[in-house]
Every structure is written in structure tokens, then in C-alpha cells.
Please model this.
Amino acid sequence: MREKSAAASNPDAMSGATPRSHIVVLSGAGISAESGIRTFRGGGGLWHDFRIEDVATPEAWQRDPERALGFYNVRRRQLYSVEPNAGHRALAGLERDFPVTIITQNIDNLHERAGSSNILHLHGALDKARSTADDALIYDLAGRDIRLGNTCELGSQLRPHVVWFGEMVPELERAEEIVRHADVLIVVGTSFSVYPAANLAFLAPSHARKVLVNPEIPDTVGLDAFECIGEPAARALPRLAEELRKR
Ligand code: NAD
Model:
């Protein structure tokens, strides 16, 4: 994954959706903001206090693994002191009436805890650890810290199961395929500044209804195909969910 360097575009026109539409949601840090988890940028953003290159890159891990582990340990502990908000719950509730797939850039587990069942974590999951010897060895942490000396069954150090800047995004192709089959695409709480995730928003087919939820509509090329709701997720998503049910 990498930070913004170029804008994506898609001139598709907006259109309606049918009652049993496949709803695909692309969520970013903004959906968890009202739960009390800081976003990536913006006022109070996480990276005002931490430099990406000190804690969230393979080089940072090589240089100072204890520091990187500490950064994620603090984030993980905080996760268990916050709750899903009305935005997460509204998306979970949609599953009663529609097939729903959530593709999230978030490493928190608030979609799961709200009740969503079909979630692809594009950038990994804070509550999991992974072997540094074998990417397939992934362990549930259940809120525990990862410390230097905690090892996988092969004896190698555990690392956070997250995608760092500069690393490949293993689930990208699967995510692209899901978006290409969306009938309704809801993009919520993302600044379109982290690639390749940002490009996913522009892969939905032309017939798909496309909705963007963000209190500060990003200045991103290609958003003319979207209905833009300039409100926080916890307010906008319950209303949007109700409207989708009525169609
Ligand atoms: P970002 O921080 O770059 O952008 C957040 C966006 O959310 C902004 O456009 C902001 O206007 C919007 N926003 C703020 N409050 C909102 C609200 N109440 N409702 C809806 N939108 C709101 O986030 P990003 O685009 O997801 O990129 C951040 C990267 O950092 C991702 O790769 C993600 O993995 C990671 N990250 C994850 C978390 C998390 O897991 N909760 C938190 C911080 C960062």
C-alpha cells in the first residue's frame, strides 16, 4: 500500500438499484471516528503524533520492532474500550434484506462487533498476529499485546497482521472482483489518500448506484458519478439503509 500520488477517475453516470441488489461497502477510518478511534489524517489524525516511517513500514520493523509493536499494542488496547456506532450497526442491519459485502481499509474490528458477517479486511486486522516466517500462520490475539519474543509455532517472531506502507495488498484482487459485481456501492469515511485501496471506488459497473458518505467530501477526480452525502456516518448510514429498504 502507498500514499496518494495520483487521482483515479470514472465518468460512470449514477443510476438506481433493485431491492435484492448486492450492496458493497468500502469503508475507511472515518466510519470509526464517531466510536472514538482516530482517523489517519485530518484534525487530531493519528499521523500528527506518529510518523508513518517510524512505525508502519517494513523498514521501521527492521529498525525498531519494539517501537512498531508498541504502536499497535496501544491501538489494540484502545479497540476494546470503544464500541461500534450507529453507522456500523446500520450496515450490519442491511444484511437482513440484502446481500452485503464490506471491504474495509480499517484494521479495527468494529464492523464484526456490530454484526456484519461478510467482511474483507484489505489492510489486515489489529486483533491478529502473523508469523514473520510464514504469512499463512495467523493467530487471534483476543486483545493481547504482541511482545518481542512472542513466536509462532515455527519459532519465528510474531508481527501485527497488518499491511504496512510499502507492502503488497494480498486481498486486492478479491476486493476488485467484488466491487466489479456491485449493484450499490457505498463509500464511507475514506480520504482516497491510500493506494491501491482508493482506486477500488472507481471499479463499480456503470449500472451501480454509487453513494459517498463523508462530512468533508474529498476533492477527488471521478466523484461526479457519486451521490455525495456530506454528513457523518453515524447520522447518514441509518437513513441511507432505511431508504435502500424502501426502494
Ligand atoms: P483517512 O484518515 O485518510 O480519512 C478519513 C476520512 O474520513 C476523511 O476524509 C474524513 O473527512 C472522513 N470522516 C471523518 N469523520 C467521519 C465521519 N464521522 N463519518 C464519515 N467520514 C468521516 O482514512 P482512510 O482513507 O481510511 O485511510 C487511512 C488508512 O489508515 C487506511 O489505510 C487504514 O487502514 C488506516 N487506519 C485505520 C484506522 C482504523 O482501523 N479505524 C484508523 C486510522 C487509520
